[in-house]
Specification:
This protein is α/β, with parallel strands linked by helices. It contains 10 helices and 5 strands, in the order E-E-H-E-H-H-H-H-H-E-H-H-E-H-H. Helix content is 41%, strand content 12%. The strands form 2 sheets. A 3-stranded mixed sheet has the order 1-2-5. A two-stranded parallel sheet has the order 3-4. Helix 8 runs antiparallel to helix 9.
Length: 259
Amino acid sequence: MVALGAARGGRVELAGFEFFADLDDWGRWLGTLPAWVGGFDLPFGLPRELVVQLGWPLAWEPLIAHYAGLGRDEIRRTFAAFCAARPKGGKFAHRQTDGPAGSSPSMKWVNPPVAFMLHAGVPRLLAADAALPGLHPPLRVAGASRIALEAYPGLLARELIGRRSYKSDLVAGQTVERREARADLLAALERGAGRLGLRLALDPGARDALLADAKGDRLDAVLCLVQAAWAEARRDSRPGPGYGLPEVIDPVEGWIVTA
């Protein structure tokens, strides 16, 4: 699911959504648009500690090529073996960005399966000729400017409503309390609460749809849209790779925008 919009004068105007049942369709669609800045809710890199121990390439592009060539079963076995050899309480390796973002380690293959999200998503971003600031330089394609940023909706949601849960994939978990949390989250976004300083503009129909989506897919896409808008306004920030990213980013791990 993709939330579409534009940023103007401190406002992020929601224009609508695109839905894709197939990842290949999503990837092809990204490549048909000549210019975009997108926030994607999937990790762009792996923990350096993990990569070093496994003896995988320490340059990002060869690392992603190697990782994309593995099957999911092999990834699961490799990561499970890595965790099994480590002490209780420190099974997973973490990226530097996980601390400030409060994100799951990108090597997790379950709850949430972000390792497989990386495996499925990043190669398609590269196939769409996207630049990943700090990791993968822009291609010099005439008339094209596609900028992919790693986003994390949970980071912005926690800033606005704390650790209240606002979504559930299970019908039994789609409670009144979670709907109220979505309402409060939307209200905070619309008034521009929080450190990003951007106000979400949407019509009543879109607001109703966001409230009604108990799984939270639309709202998560909107949170990524706001993070991408914040970054786009800082595209020329220096020093560093721009887009509000830190001056120095581990070129194996990447960084979550706004963290």
